Amino acid sequence: MFVNRLINGSFETGSLSPFNGINAVVVSSNSHSGYFSVRLTGGTANAFIQQFVPVAAGESFELIVSLAKLGAAVSPPVTLAVNYYNAAFAFLGYGLITSIPAGRIPDNNEADWTVIYQTTSPAPAGTTQALVLINKLPLSGSADMFVDDASLLDAAGLRGGTGPAGPAGATGVTGPTGATGATGDPGPMGATGATGATGSTGPQGQTGTFSQVYANIFDNADQALSVIQPTVRFNQFNSPDSIIAGGIVATATSLTVPVAGDYAVLWLTFFLPVAGQQHCAFGVFVNGTLRDSTRSGVAAFADQEIDTASSVAILSLNANDTLELRALIPDESTQDNIDLSAEVVYPGTGTNQPINSASLRIIRLGP
Question: How many CB atoms sit inside 10 A of residue 54's CB?
Answer without folding.
Answer: 15
